Amino acid sequence: MVRILKRLNRRQFIGAVGAGAVAAGCGADGVVGTIDPVDPIDLTGGGPELPTTVGPGPVEPVDPVDPVDPVDPGPTLPANYRATFLQRVTFGPTRAEQQRFDQIGHEAFLEEQLNPESIDDSNTGIGDLLAPLWTLSATPDELMTTRWPDSWVSAMPHHARAKMIYAIKSRRQLYERMVDFWSDHFNIHPVTTYVRFQNIRFQQQVIRPHAMGNFRDLLFAVAKSPAMMEYLDNQVNYANAMNENYARELLELHTVGLNNGYSHQDIVETARAFTGWRAVAQAGTDVFNFEFRAGYHDNGAKYIMGLPLQAGGGITDGERVLDFLASHPNTATFIATKLLLYFVTDTPTSSMIDRVSTAFYESDGDIRTTLRALLSVDILQHAKPRLRRPFEMVVNVLRRTGATIDSTKSIEEILRPMGHYPYDWSTPDGYPIRESHWAGGFLERWNFAFGLAKGLINGITLPTSAALGPSVAPSREQV
């Protein structure tokens, strides 16, 4: 960092410190020190309101979605609510998104984001950036045979870059945030060749299609995913040789939460219910799909957390368990708490949890209904500035500054030392959400900020007005 500073002239230094306040700030919603109200790079979740005329805006013209009639703003919103709202609904609001908020109001803006299929995501440059990432569309035969070992080397970086591209460039911001949330909630680490390739399919066919749908549908899709069955060892869960790994994580991480209404015997009984659930290759191919093998299933009676399963249930044993857990009140509380931790605060109150969990439970796990409660004025008016995770911080800065993105390859080199490289958390619990885990690593954040301001990050160009212009100059307290 010292070497970088020595190469900066006075004007560049001031701009770099301003960018440093963005990224290191300390990567939080609220930066260290006081940000001038006109600063376009203020990352506060509950700090000064974001102005509508800041920075250069998006690199490409943004085609608005179908016009929405101006709405009655209703009661006066809390001070700084605009900033708080946009910093939660998006990875970091662009100028166009701030203007859209002003045009239609927070309720209509939220409804737009809750219906991502209505948002035009063309002309964003996403397709051009994804085009070189050939493993995302490769056939299983290409991945496993004809383009091996290049496929092994390329699959994980391509997968990670795709996530960065969508997060930075997509206008469907709340959708991408939920993709990020569920990817951690149902985390899969590509520890084997099989899982490395299947994890791409897991994102494309499980997480992304269900991210804004119904939790029950998502839970079923995850349970029948070849990637999850391999990762959590249900492939080797037989009637005469049980493996409890998937059953344990289904209860602890996917639904009701750790030690929340179940015993070890419930884990055993759950494992019995999922014997015979397997991923099987289609004849003569490397394409794996879910298949129930009755010969591997434990057909005895089972009793799980008060749910009786009669003998001879076959595949319906596992399906009934999933349905039971998806509707369980403890699942509603667990999911609501995690959503509050991810979007709002490290210290959600019981009333916050009750409001969100009630929406989840009474809507039978409807994710859109749950998000309406989560992102309501009643909840967000109590939101506090919070430290961003490294991936979120980097994406926020690039979106807020209107940086030109020609390639995301260099971002890998930034996120790896920060400990937040996409899809690289080794255990099933996913990357931590709480701020305490990310309290260190500020040197890497500052290095990112200075590198961005100095133009040292390949494939990313920061507009001059954002990197060096007076609007980014730090306040006295920041210096």
Describe the fold and architecture.
This protein folds into two domains: 1-212 and 364-479, no CATH class; 214-327, no CATH class. Helices cover 49% and strands 4% of the residues. It contains 22 helices and six strands. The protein has helices at residues 2-6, 10-23, 81-89, 95-114, 126-130, 140-146, 150-169, 173-185, 193-210, 215-223, 226-231, 245-254, 264-273, 315-326, 329-343, 350-362, 367-374, 377-380, 390-401, 409-418, 442-454, 464-467, and strands spanning 277-281, 288-292, 302-304, 307-309, 404-405, 460-461. The protein is globular. The two termini are 16 Å apart.
Quick synopsis:
The chain has 479 residues and is mainly alpha-helical.
